[in-house]
Amino acid sequence: MFLYNTQTRKKEEFVPIIKNRLSLYACGPTVYDYFHIGNARAFIFFDVVRRYFEFKGYEVNYVQNITDIDDKIINKSIEEKVDFTTVADKYSQAFLDDAKALGIKAPSVQPRATEVMPDIIAYIDALVKSGHAYEANRDVYFDTSSLPSYGSLSGKKTEDQLTGARVAENLFKRNPTDFTLWKNSKPGEPVWQSPWGEGRPGWHTECVVMSQKYLGETFDIHGGGIDLIFPHHENELAQAQALSGKPLANYWLHNGFLNIEGEKMSKSLKNFFTARDILQEYDAEVIRFFFLSKHYRSPIDFTRELMEESKRALSNFYEALKTVDFLEIPKILLDTSQSTEVRDFTSAMDDDFNTAKAIAIMFDLVKQLKSPSASEDDKHKAAKVMFYIGRVLGFFQNLETKLHKKQPDLSDALMELIINYRNEARNNKDWKTSDRIRDDLAALSIEIKDTPKGCIWTQKEQ
RNA sequence: GGCGACAUAGCCAAGUGGUAAGGCAGAGGUCUGCAAAAUCUCUAUCCCCGGUUCAAAUCCGGGUGUCGCCUCCA
Question: By three-state DSSP, how is residue A457 classified?
Answer without folding.
Answer: strand
